[in-house]
Amino acid sequence: MYIKIKNLSLVLMLYLGFLSHAQSHLDHYIKIGLTKNEVIRQKSFDINKSLFALKEAQSLFYPNVALVGNYTIADGGRTIDIPIGDMLNPVYSTLNQITNSSTFPQLQNQSVLINPNNFYDVKLHTTMPLLNYEIIYNKRIKTQQTNLQKIELEVYKRELVKDIKIAYYKYLQSVEGIRIYENALSIVKENQRVNRSLFKNEKINRTAVLRSDNEVKRIEANLELAKNTSKNARSYFNFLLNQKLDSEIEIDENIELPTELIEENTSNREELKQLNQIKDINENVFEMTRSNWFPKLSGFADLGFQDFDFKLDKSSRYYFAGLSLEWNIFSGNKNKYKLKQVDEDRKKISSQVDNVKQQLLLQYEVSQNNLRSALEQYESDSKQKETAKKYNGDITKLYKEGLAIYIELLDAQNQVVNTQLNANISLYNSWIAFAELERANATFNLNQEN
């Protein structure tokens, strides 16, 4: 099929596109790659980790309940002196005199250890934040980090789709190269047979025989190289799909170059979404850092038992509850300098956004120009292939009639092989260029149904 390029000055007109019926196998392989590729699986683990980190951040809003128990024994150390005897003994003596009895005993002054001895305390300790901007912004940051992981996954998926397509086209290119060399080998072997017969009948000299023998060896060597190249291309393609490296690859037949209109759409590239997400994260980091100046309010409550000698009765039960307020008044301007660092990060990210926009636009322009060049090359190689085919037919007739020498025939046949190889290379180079343009423009639909 000949591709005629028209209106190359039109930036948006690209002579390449997909035919669903002609690309069915490739579409199937892309779906396999997006499902089974190991790097995608690893990035999925990272997303799951981010989701768990988000749930962890959400759990900070809920009460925290812990069972706390301790038992202490003590001896020595500081004491509290209680002069109970000095205070009550005079009173008791007076009462004994009045009642003419010894009902009221004399008491000794007491000295009580500050550290409790043989004492237990078991309680449910509950705490809950009531007002804490830090955990509010932390939750927002974790949400955005999860979204960032998802965007990074999409970036890799787009890169993987491009790699799968290029690997597939290179494999098809190598398979067609093998076919071309096999056809060439059958032709040079036939030439070898004919020349040996002519030499045997003394119709030609030995030079033509030697030259035909060398051509057979040269084509055989090129064929072996093409087969090895094809094996390597197949192994790499299967590697991308996480399949056995020697798995057979289904080939799409009749791949052509129809026209397709592609408009510049780099503003929707995931790389820009990444930077915008990072910018939003930076904004929340700024707000979280600034929230250090705001008060933090939390509540707590204890419900439990405490007593000496492991006693347990109504008097052992207790509850204890309250509020806790923390307000950072001064920290040596530490928070101020943290804010300045975050602000510098914000300026850096804004600069990166502008730079990346230009880079993506440049990538699109270069990919588009490469595609146009590849299509022009394919058109030229296709014409040369047809011309070489006609020329070879004419020289073959002349050689059979004895009007052309073998060198002329050999040259004509080599032109056929070389132009076929060049056309094959430029055909799939056009598809490769399209895959790169599709990647530069984020055109492929990652959400298509499996």
Notes on the protein architecture:
The protein has eight helices and eight strands. The protein is α+β, with helices and mostly antiparallel strands and 450 residues long. It has one domain: Outer membrane efflux proteins (OEP). Strands 2-5-7-8 form a four-stranded antiparallel β-sheet, with no helix packed on it. It is rod-shaped. Keywords: Cell outer membrane, Coiled coil, Membrane, Transmembrane, Transmembrane beta strand, Transport. Its main location: membrane. This is Outer membrane protein TolC. It is found in: Cell outer membrane.
List keywords for this structure.
OMP_efflux, transport, four-stranded antiparallel beta sheet, Outer membrane efflux proteins (OEP), rod-shaped, disordered N terminus, transmembrane beta strand, membrane, 13% strand, single chain, Outer membrane protein TolC, alpha+beta, 450 residues, 62% helix, two-stranded antiparallel ribbon
What's the SSE blueprint?
Elements: E1 13-14, H1 24-36, H2 38-59, E2 64-72, E3 79-82, H3 84-99, E4 110-113, E5 119-131, H4 133-200, H5 206-240, E6 260-261, H6 270-290, E7 296-308, E8 317-326, H7 334-400, H8 406-441
Antiparallel strand pairs: 1-6, 2-5, 3-4, 5-7, 7-8
Helix pairs in contact: 1-4, 2-4, 4-5, 4-6, 4-8, 6-7, 7-8
Subcellular location: Cell outer membrane
Coiled coil: 339-388
Family: Belongs to the outer membrane factor (OMF) (TC 1.B.17) family.
